[in-house]
Amino acid sequence: MTPQLQQAIKLLQLSRLELMETVQQELLENPFLEESAESITPADATEAAEIRSEAVEAYDKELATNADWEDYLGDFSSTSRQTSSRDAEIPEEMTSFEARLTSRPSLDGHLSWQLTLSSITEEQRTIGEVIIGNIGSNGYLQATMEEIADMAGATVPEVEVMLRRVQRFDPVGVAARSPQECLLVQIEVLGYDRDPVLVELVREHLEDLEKRRYKPLCRKFRINMDDLKEYIDLILTLDPMPGASFGSSEPQYVSPDVFVHKYDGEFVIILNEEGLPSLQLSDIVDCLPTVSGPDKDYFQEKMRSASWLIKSLHQRQRTLYKVMESIVKYQRGFFEEGVTQLKPLILKDIAEDIGMHESTVSRITTSKYVSTPHGIFELKFFFNSAIGMDDGSSVGSESVKALIRQLVQGEDPRRPLSDERIGEILKEKLQLNIARRTVAKYRTAMDIPSSSKRKSAF
């Protein structure tokens, strides 16, 4: 496999942001490559490359042959009309968008700020810093009192005193050692600790509440179900994960590679080329015939690399368009009505339709996203296995998952549907024979609890 072919394959599987970084890096390193001042079409780029390749034909016949890019061109849409309309917009005369952004405060920084403002001694401040340094991302303490005492050079009673103080910082209940302690601290701060039943429920019976063992609790505390419901509603207002709102992980934003819009009853595919530079060969290539000696090989290699990058980018965009066009054809029901109409589809179907290898389809659908009338989806989403129906036809597994989700959302909370009952409903509606264990597998994959955990006594 030649380096040029390796580069073309690599570009296929890069995400849009990774592709932009790769192109920018090549622009910095390759003197034969430059960004066009104006947006040029693939045909313009091909013509320019062919003219310049003729100038160096005597030096590199192979390059001149490879510069014929007719096989790599195709009729695929671009965002030229969108970008031209944006060029006419008046930019905001103010600071840049990036300059107006601010990072989210971390849990460690938020607690340290409160510790700095506290009226405490230097010894207590040291203990507090050690406590804060041993709090996990969920807000719970991850070290014992003895370990903190050793690290801070203090005694365990001194650590206990400072821990109690930190636990009452914002968010209340942080640095707790168990869920019970976390909720009890919040109950105390809110003034609810005067109710012994509430305190006992939290301290000793959280597991019973989780498993919905309500009747034994009513008998033990001599209360009715309505009273127990009030206690449960109050407990649900508390936060068992006080550090969750200060998560350090940043949200991942997706920039779609393709847009699919419906226009006059047909679906139009538009490739997202915003931010992707239009590349062309630099004028320095005209100096190549005058170069001799050891510099000649370097110049030829860089020119070959620049030509192949432009060629590979066009091939990538053409392949992406063809694959998306085929997906729209096979999954038209999804684009019309939504996920419940998603049909079974495998890579081989698309590969045979567009006349390419399965591995090429697999690479071009990796880390690529499409904006549809029903939301943004990864291209891999459209490939799902088939489930046989009684009439001999098949339905996609993703469609079955969507129907299971709809059934669960519309069920009676007091009488949730069992996996077996969901299977029976699917058979009635779709004439689909699906085993209970298959329903359970799909339900688990969608993070839907079992019927016993979804059941509500109220």
TrEMBL record:
Provide the GO MF annotations for this entry.
Answer: DNA binding; DNA-binding transcription activator activity; nucleotidyltransferase activity; sigma factor activity
Keyword terms, alphabetized: DNA-binding, DNA-directed RNA polymerase, Nucleotidyltransferase, Sigma factor, Transcription, Transcription regulation, Transferase
State any GO BP term from the record: DNA-templated transcription initiation
Domain RNA polymerase sigma factor 54 core-binding, which positions? 97-282
**Pfam families xref list:** Sigma54_AID (PF00309), Sigma54_CBD (PF04963), Sigma54_DBD (PF04552)
Gene Ontology annotations for the cellular component aspect, listed alphabetically: DNA-directed RNA polymerase complex
Name-wise, this protein is RNA polymerase sigma-54 factor
- Provenance organism: Desulfovibrio psychrotolerans
